[in-house]
Amino acid sequence: MAENLAGTIAERDGFIVTKGKNKKQLQCDTDSSAGCVSQRACVYCGARVVLNPITDAIHLVHGPIGCASYTWDIRGSLSSGAELYRNSFSTDLKEQDIIFGGAKKLSAAIDGLMEKYQAKLVFVYSTCIVGVIGDDLEAICSAASQKHNIAVIPVESSGFIGNKSAGYRAAGDALLRLIKPSQSAVIEKNNSINYLGDFNLAGEAWIIQNYLRQMGVELNVTFTGDSRYTALKSAPKAKLNIIQCAGSMIYMAGKMEELYQIPYIQISFLGIEDTATSLRKIAAALGEESMIAKAEALIAKETQRVEAIIKGYRTKLQGKKAAIFVGGGFKAISLIKQFREIGIDVVMIGTQTGRKEEYETINDLVDDGTVILDDANPAELEKFMMEKGANLLVGGVKERPLAYKLGIAFIDHNHDRKHPLSGFEGAVNFAEEVYSTVCSPVWNSLAKLRIEGGVTDHG
Amino acid sequence: MLDCTPKEITERKSGGMINPAKTCQPIGAMYAALGIHKCLPHSHGSQGCCSYHRMHLTRHFRDPVMASTSCFTEGSSVFGGGANLKASIQNVFHIYKPDVMAIHTTCLTETIGDDVSSIIKTAEVAADKLVIHANTPSYVGSHITGFSNMTKAMVSYLAKNTLPKKKEQANIIPGFVNPGDMREIKRLVQSMDIEYIMFPDTSGVVDSPMTGEFQMYPEGGTTVEQLKDTGNSQLSLALGRFASSDPADLLNKQCGVPAAVLKTPIGIKATDALLMTLRNSFAREIPKELEIERGQLVDIMTDTHFHFHGKTVAIFGDPDIVTGLTEFVLSLGMVPLHVLTGTPGGSSNSAAGSFEDDINEMLKGAGIEANVKSAGDLFTLHQWIKNQPVDLLIGNTYGKYIARAEDIPFMRVGFPILDRSVHSYLPIVGYQGAMRLIEMISNALLDRADRDAKDEDFELVM
Fold first, then answer.
1. Which residues pair with residue B257 across a beta bridge?
2. Model confidence at B383: pLDDT above 50
3. Chain segment B137-190, per-residue pLDDT in tens
4. Of the candidates A173, A188, A179, A181, which has an alpha carbon nearest to the alpha carbon of residue A231?
5. Which of A405, B38, B49, B172 is deepest in the core (most CB within 10 A)?
């Protein structure tokens, strides 16, 4: 079976390289081939995952029911208060709406929701069909905004206009509209920073917020994990933007620099090394002596605390091989380093939407022989994981059962993560999760079957 | 508290949904297509649709779900998706090598008006390969409608009446149920010693065993030969009118196979009805082994009935499943106060009756007045429960918000179940499935009784 699937389509050749073997540059950032079993999602998906963590907003999906059903509370981003975002709102367009237009239904839906929930902010997501039937979202949202005296923001996220990255941009545009001060308002700058690209999965943003507090850094608002309308509106006041998930937020950060003169730096809180580097970068960017000192104290204390624990895992995991297939390139880069911390080599690495520069960094970081691939399909993932003898795959929901079927351990680095993987605590959780799956006794049951069946164990 | 639903019920004018109890047609079509042997479902639309459906099915079944997509771009939606679909057909057979490619449409491709059947006709497909399709506009019906439409497509594309006389063979159309249920229905029919073709049949596909190898096309699924042969069967049994009656009706029109539309065999009455229909149509005796199972079930029902009598319950989910569950809890002496499905009343273009009528008739027979609604949402269900609380909530995973907000015991049945495992392997149909349901209901109610009991009321023997 595996042999049959190993043959990849010629059109895909440019999207796969092996470090040290191929001189060619990896192709990426293009549309997927028609007829592929892609692991990628759509524009709406990208926009929704970025905006959904805004907890006190009504997230209204304008379209037939599916798009709302599949995104109902799947993000796993936690809230410290409001829970409105965990409900699913849809205009549930029907056949007659497709023929006569969905404008009236949308207005009525906003009115109806405003009667029930006193929200200050409504996002109206456009789906594929809205892009085709041509409802004027701008006009409808603007009228609703005036009527209810709240922010009603259209999100231009028709699924077919691009891939997930286009959705990040659509979300960025919506956020930029949200934070735009009224014309008369004067922006009073303060010493705070905005934290971009943390969605508070499993409470990760809270960990980082706690570090910043310990360093004496004032956090203005997080985009968008556990954020609310009022805090988001204050975003232009900040002095600095720090970006964790660059794929989703780099566009937004660039725009904020242009519009509000807020410079940005890219940081990563995945793994001990990157966490320490990032905290130093933030302190240096803010330039206050006391912060630099506090950062060093924090790093010293935390590194010492977690290193012993991580070392314990490293002895158990040394020599295991990992495969990575995640959404964005920046996360992939951090993961390579993080695996190194626990003694694991990365033998295959790919992303859904990584950018050219990110793939260059990946290429620099990995060992010769590592397979690098963009927008891979399951057959390709299977082929290279088996060829390279991976013991573990890092991926999202669709990759999990694929890995398990191959007898390969798995950790979720996406919406389904159950433990925070950020910061020093996260590094420990990461090592523990890797250990608990790679060294689980369940794999022994499979090995036994293989011996009895005379099949060679690849693990 | 994770509860944003106001108690006061006001008129809902907009027609929008809050916390839906349904999803869209294409995912049902994808699930049905997985029940054909060596078939790759294909989503003709944007990449996200396919991704979401695979994700949702993967979360429910915890097995790999393979499907391809036409990967729409702005250009294809302006100029039509014909080129994408043709390229898809070529690529799919070239790379993934299925025997069958089952295309379903999406709201996008329905609205721009791609003529899928013409595109298929002009596409180059090898002689031993097959392409079928179903129109599944997301803005009509629900995932159940999509399942029905893809099952109908299996008939319209493949079923042939090739023999002068019908075979002594039954078509079993199981509806949108888990592979565990399909296995159990097959076991019942086999133990009656009746030849049958079940379609679609996802057992062996989304509950495939772990072998250390990834099989793009696991061993299960109805074969193309079998699908062709459905036209020669003596009878079609459509289990669940919403998911199954349309394909059975089409088989009757197309190949002259008479159809019997029965309830999904949940509980003793519906299982009896299935077995009696088989017995009468194929002149078989009910085997001893099933007599014993039935006797055991009745024994369990009598042993436990005092736990259930008069307990109020709210049930939501897919119409065929909810109908079966309602009938079963009534047979235990429970009182369904709220019964809701998100799927609109009658499956589209079918003469089948309405969900609300079915349920109301059953309730009337038991002298119960209740809230009953099709095309409803969980916001409505939650409001009902706030105004008239129940002892037990039965439904899919999404019920957990209501159960938590109202502190009600919650029993997970249906699709999707995203937060528990094993459910898709074990049946709720047949006598054995009914036993399992009783165990689930008992555990939910009695665990709660234990939790809430004061020390002096806390009992060892229950």
1. none
2. yes
3. 999 999 999 999 999 999 999 999 999 999 999 999 999 999 999 999 999 999
4. A179
5. B49
Closest approach of B138 to chain A, Cα-based (Å)? 6
Are the Cβ atoms of A407 and B212 closer than 8 angstroms? yes
Q: Specify the DSSP class assigned to residue A244.
A: S
Residues B191 and B138 in one domain: no
CATH architecture assigned to A2-30+318-417: 3-Layer(aba) Sandwich (3.40)
The answer on pLDDT for A2 being more than 60 is: no
Q: What confidence tens digit (pLDDT) does each residue in A225-251 have?
A: 999 999 999 999 999 999 997 788 999
Q: What percent of chain A has pLDDT over 70?
A: 93
Q: Is the pTM of this model over 0.90?
A: yes
Q: Which of these, B210, B227, B184, B170, lies nearest to B33 by C-alpha position? A: B227
How many H-runs (helices) and E-runs (strands) does chain B carry?
17, 14
- Render A72-110 in DSSP notation, one character per residue: TT-S-B--SS--GGGS-EE----HHHHHH-SHHHHHHHH
Same-domain check for residues B136 and B149: yes
Any domain includes B15: no
Point out the least confidently predicted range of A170-174, A216-220, A443-447, B267-271: A443-447
Per-residue pLDDT reduced to its tens digit, A268-302? 999 999 999 999 999 999 999 999 999 999 999 99
Expressed as residue numbers, the domain containing B228 is 167-208+216-288
Q: Domain A43-179 falls in which CATH fold?
A: Rossmann fold (3.40.50)
Establish whether the linkage from the previous residue to A18 is cis, with ω within 30° of 0.
no
- Total domain count for chain B? 3
If asked whether residues B93 and B151 sit together in one domain, one would say: yes
Q: What gap in Å lies between CA A248 and CA A160, rounded to an integer?
A: 18
When scoring B62, B70, B71, B214 by the number of chain A Cβ atoms within 10 A, the one with the most, hence best to mutate, is B214
Q: Work out the minimum CA distance from A293 to partner chain B, whole angstroms.
A: 41
CA A358, CA A15: separation in Å to the nearest integer?
14
Among B64, B70, B108, select the one facing A378 at the smallest CB separation. Answer: B64
**Are the folds of A2-30+318-417 and A43-179 the same?**
yes
B62 Cβ under 8 Å from any chain A Cβ: yes
Q: Is B247 exposed, middle or buried (0-12, 13-18, 19+ CB in 10 A)?
A: buried
Say yes or no: B42 contacts chain A, CB-CB below 8 A.
Answer: yes
> Residue A83: which of B4, B24, B111 has the nearest Cβ?
B4
Please give the pLDDT value at position B348.
47
Interface probe with A: pick from B7, B47, B92, B135, most Cβ of A within 10 Å = B47
Which of B240, B256, B288 is the endpoint of a domain?
A: B288
CA distance B310 to chain A (A): 32
Where residue A334 falls among pLDDT bands split at 50, 70, 90? confident
Query: Which CATH number covers residue B225?
Result: 3.40.50.1980
- With CA atoms as reference, the chain B residue closest to A79 would be B2
8 Å CB contact of A41 and B51: yes
pLDDT tier for residue A24 given thresholds of 50, 70 and 90: low
B446 and B298 housed in the same domain: yes
Domain A193-300: top CATH class: alpha beta
Q: Which residues of B touch A458 (CB under 8 A)?
A: 212
Which member of A4, A34, A97 has the closest CB to residue B88?
A: A34
Tell me if B214 and A1 make a contact (CB, 8 A cut-off).
yes
**The complex's ipTM?**
0.95
Q: What is the mean pLDDT of chain B?
A: 95
* Test mutation, B2, B11, B18, chain A, max A CBs within 10 A: B18
Q: Are residues B109 and B125 in the same domain?
A: yes
Task: Please list every residue in chain B whose beta carbon sits closer than 8 Å to the beta carbon of residue A41.
Answer: 47-48, 51-52
- Is residue A130 classed exposed, middle or buried when 0-12, 13-18 and 19+ CB atoms within 10 A define those classes? buried
Which residues of chain A are within 8 Å of residue B23 when distances are taken between CB atoms?
65-66, 69-70
Give pLDDT, residue B42.
98
DSSP A361: H
Where are chain A's structural domains?
2-30+318-417, 43-179, 193-300
- B16: in domain: no
A193's tokens: 């920073």
- pLDDT recorded at residue B135: 98
Strand partners, B18: A89
